[in-house]
Design brief:
313 residues; mainly alpha; two-stranded antiparallel sheet; two-stranded antiparallel ribbon; 13 helices; globular; MetI-like_sf; UgpAE/MalFG_permease; transmembrane; Sugar ABC transporter permease
Length: 313
């Protein structure tokens, strides 16, 4: 490459520039992200993948207690679980719990979150109030429901005060209502927090979309479901997956605190059955066989929810 230079006598002259002096293109610095991710990857492998593999290993063992001798059972635990009526009662109860709690929670949370996102009077205070169930510990929430649903609790007292004493019941001790009470607790504890998540996502939707829909004659109902919902459809899918996992795997604590799986097996869920067989019946092989089934149900459920809520545009 040549350049023009000025000589001392004022005339212009051409000068060659050696190739080594040309400006080399800037190279992006090497990223050290892989090294920084090593601690997180090790943590994930040890505390996530490790226990997951242990579930499948223990499911193939006959292990009657932590300090008892272990023997190989093969598919014996699978046959035992498959022939156990308690397992099928737990499957039925879990299916009912998911079929009722999940749609009610997501639909009501979305509608409540849409209302909060419209910034009505007192919407800031309403956001804090919706967080209250999430701030209360699980034992405290269980005690609140126990106080309300016990035979001499608030619900029966309210029914008697309005002349409906014939409808009173031992709600947590009745086979026909125990599971419904647990579902009501799941919905109450999750609907507020989920509504706040939806409100935060809806606040990022441009206001022009809603204003244009209302100028075209759409009401709040149609704007909520036909305009805003398609925009945040993928986010609704993520929240639905989180609530699905929480309901599927986290119901054991409410069952343990309120009904112990009874009366009989009317409120026994799969997650509580895992706990019951492991820590009460001391049958670790049976427990982890149910855990494998629970893992497969969770995996299939996540894939199904992802397919339902995937964007179509």
């Amino acid at each position: 490459m040549t350049t023009l230079t000025t000589t001392p006598d004022g005339t212009a002259a051409r000068r060659s520039v050696p190739p080594s002096s040309r400006s080399a293109p800037t190279r992006a610095p090497r990223q050290g992200g892989t090294v920084l991710a090593v601690p997180a990857l090790v943590w994930y492998l040890v505390f996530m993948v490790g226990p997951l593999l242990a579930i499948f290993v223990i499911a193939a063992l006959h292990w009657p207690g932590m300090l008892q001798p272990v023997s190989f059972a093969g598919l014996g635990n699978v046959r035992t679980v498959w022939d156990d009526p308690m397992f099928w009662d737990a499957v039925r109860n879990t299916a009912v719990q998911l079929a009722v709690a999940l749609p009610v929670m997501i639909v009501c949370s979305y509608m409540l979150g849409y209302y909060v996102a419209q910034r009505p009077p007192g919407h800031r205070l309403l956001r804090y109030l919706l967080f209250i169930p999430g701030l209360i510990s699980t034992p405290a929430k269980a005690m609140v429901f126990y106080a309300a649903l016990s035979p001499d609790g608030l619900v029966n007292g309210a029914l008697q005060s309005v002349g409906l004493g014939s409808l009173t019941d031992a709600w947590l001790a009745s086979p026909s209502t125990a599971l419904a009470c647990l579902i009501a607790l799941d919905i109450w504890s999750g609907i507020g927090f989920t509504a706040v998540l939806f409100a935060a996502r809806l606040n990022s939707v441009p206001d022009e979309l809603g204003e244009a829909a209302q100028l075209d004659g759409a009401g709040h109902w149609r704007t909520m479901w036909r305009v805003h919902f398609p925009v945040i459809r993928d986010y609704v899918g993520v929240v639905t997956m989180l609530q699905f996992l929480w309901t599927l795997f986290g119901s054991a604590q409410n069952v343990l605190l309120l009904t112990q799986g009874g009366p009989g097996t009317s409120s026994t869920t799969l997650s509580f059955l895992v706990y019951q067989k492991a820590f009460i019946a001391a049958d670790l092989g049976y427990s982890q066989t149910v855990g494998v089934f629970l893992f497969l149900v969770g995996l299939v459920g996540l894939l199904a929810i992802r397919r339902v809520f995937r964007q179509t545009y």
